[in-house]
Structure prediction request, 67 residues.
Amino acid sequence: MRTIIDTIGGLYELARLAVISRFNFTGAYWRWRLETAFGRGYPESRWELVKAVLEYGRWVHRMRRGG
Prediction:
C-alpha cells in the first residue's frame, strides 16, 4: 500500500515540478537535473528511464513529507 501512495505522491511531485519550471524542460534546471541524474549515461531503455524518473518522484514525495 505504501508503494502505491508513494507512487501517487511522486507523480504529484513530478507534475508540481513541471508547473514550477513552467514546462521548460530544456531550461537550466532540467539540464542540471539530467546531468546529475544521468551523468554517466542515460538508461539503455525508455522503460528504465521512466522507472528512474518515477523513483525520483517517489523520493521527492518522501522527503517533502518528512521521510
